TrEMBL record:
Highest taxon, organism lineage: Bacteria
One GO MF term attached to the UniProt entry: carboxylic ester hydrolase activity
Location of the Acetyl xylan esterase domain: 1-320
Coiled coil: none
Example GO BP: polysaccharide metabolic process
SUPFAM superfamilies named among the record's database cross-references: alpha/beta-Hydrolases
UniProt protein name: Acetylxylan esterase
Signal sequence region: none
InterPro entries membership: AB_hydrolase_fold, AXE1_dom, CE7
Catalytic residues of the enzyme: S187 (nucleophile), D273 (charge relay system), H303 (charge relay system)
TM region positions: none
Pfam families: AXE1
C-alpha cells in the first residue's frame, strides 16, 4: 500500500475541526443513566478446566438497557489480593472467541476481561455469543450504518454503553482493584476503548491500537476500504441523507471522546493503514485531553500495526504506570 495520507510532520500537527453536537454530554449522560437504572446482575461461573496457570470464568453483565452481554474473565492462578485489570474490546466483526486466544494479560499478572461485541462474532475468529436484540431501519450489510438515521437508534450507542457497563462490572468484582482498571483494543476495539475512556472516570490507562471510529467525515471521504465504505454505499443509495448521517455519527466520533479522556494513553498508528487512515488516528490522539500520552508509529505497516510488538509496548507502559502509582501510595 503506498502512502496516501499526510506526511508524518503534518500528522503530528493535525488538529482538524471535528463537529460535535451541543447536547453530546447530555445525550451520553442520559444514555448511561438509563442503562444503569435498568439494573441487571453480574454472573460469574467457572468456564474451563484446561488451564493450570490461569482460571477462566464465563461472565454475563448488564449492558445497554440492562441487556445481557457476555465476557471472559481470566485470572492468574497464583495471586495475592485484588489485581489490576485490563478490559479488552474486540475488532470489527469478531467476538470474544475462545479464552485460549486471550491469555497474554493474565500471563503478565493482570485480571483480563474480554468483552463480547453484541451482534458480532461471525466474520473472523472463534465466534461471539451476545445478540443485539434491536432492529434497524435500512442499512448496508455490516454494522456501521445500523440505525444510522438517529443517534438514539444507532448501533454504537449500544456498544459504547456496553463498554462503560463492562468497566462498572469489573470494578465490582472482588478479585479486582477498582482503582487500577485499564482499557485496550485494536481497530474497532480501539475506538470502543476511546469511547469508554471519554465516558468513564478513574481509569489507570487507555491503549487504543490503530483505532477505528475516529474523524468520520475525513475517513469516509478518504479511504476506499471497509468498514468506512459501508457509509459511502449507504449514501450512494440514500441520496440527500448526508447531513443526518454525519449528525448521527458526530455523537460517536472518537475525537469527541478523546477530548474528554484524561487517563494516561498509549496509541498506535500504521502510516500505510488504508482501513483507519493515519490522519483519523492523529485527529483523536492530538485532541486527547490527558497530558500523559504517546503514540507508537509503524511507518511501513498497514492496519495490522505493531501486533505483538505493540502488546509489548502496552505491557511496558501499563507496568510503568502501576509502579508510579504504587510509589505515590507509599509516599502518601
Amino acid at each position: 500500500m503506498p502512502r496516501f495520507d499526510l506526511p508524518l510532520a503534518e500528522l503530528e500537527a493535525y488538529r482538524p475541526t471535528v463537529s460535535e453536537p451541543r447536547d453530546f454530554d447530555d445525550f451520553w449522560a442520559a444514555t448511561l443513566a438509563g442503562s444503569r437504572e435498568a439494573g441487571g446482575e453480574v454472573t460469574v461461573s467457572a468456564a474451563s478446566d484446561l488451564f493450570s496457570a490461569v482460571h477462566v470464568h464465563d461472565v454475563t453483565f448488564p449492558g445497554f438497557g440492562g441487556e445481557p452481554v457476555k465476557a471472559w474473565l481470566i485470572l492468574p492462578t497464583h495471586r495475592e489480593g485484588p489485581l489490576p485489570a485490563v478490559v479488552e474490546f474486540i475488532g470489527y466483526g469478531g467476538g470474544r472467541g475462545l479464552p485460549s486466544e486471550r491469555l497474554s494479560w493474565a500471563a503478565a499478572g493482570y485480571a483480563s476481561f474480554i468483552m463480547d461485541t453484541r451482534g458480532q462474532g461471525s466474520v473472523w475468529g472463534s465466534g461471539g455469543e451476545t445478540p443485539d436484540p434491536h432492529g434497524s431501519g435500512p442499512a448496508v450489510p455490516g454494522f456501521l450504518t445500523r440505525g444510522i438515521d438517529s443517534p438514539e437508534t444507532y448501533y454504537y450507542r449500544r456498544v459504547f454503553t456496553d463498554a462503560v457497563r463492562a468497566i462498572d462490572a469489573v470494578r465490582g468484582l472482588p478479585e479486582i482493584d477498582e482503582r487500577r482498571v485499564a482499557v485496550c483494543g485494536g481497530s474497532q476495539g480501539g475506538g470502543i476503548a476511546l469511547a469508554a475512556a471519554g465516558l468513564s472516570d478513574g481509569l489507570v490507562a487507555v491503549m487504543p491500537d490503530v483505532p477505528f471510529l475516529c474523524h468520520f467525515e475525513r475517513a469516509v471521504g478518504l479511504t476506499g476500504s471497509d468498514p468506512y465504505q459501508e457509509v459511502v454505499r449507504y449514501l450512494s443509495v440514500h441520496r440527500g441523507a448526508e447531513d443526518q448521517v454525519f449528525e448521527t455519527l458526530s455523537y460517536f466520533d472518537g475525537v469527541a471522546f478523546a477530548r474528554r479522556a484524561t487517563a494516561p494513553a498509549l496509541f498506535s498508528v500504521g502510516l500505510l493503514d488504508p482501513v483507519c487512515p493515519p490522519s483519523t488516528v492523529y485527529a483523536a490522539f492530538n485532541a486527547y485531553a490527558g497530558s500523559d500520552k504517546a503514540i507508537t508509529v509503524y511507518p511501513f505497516n498497514e492496519h495490522e500495526g505493531g501486533l505483538g510488538h505493540q502488546w509489548q509496548a502496552q505491557a511496558a507502559f501499563l507496568a510503568r504506570l502501576l509502579r508510579s502509582d504504587a510509589r505515590d501510595e507509599v509516599s502518601a
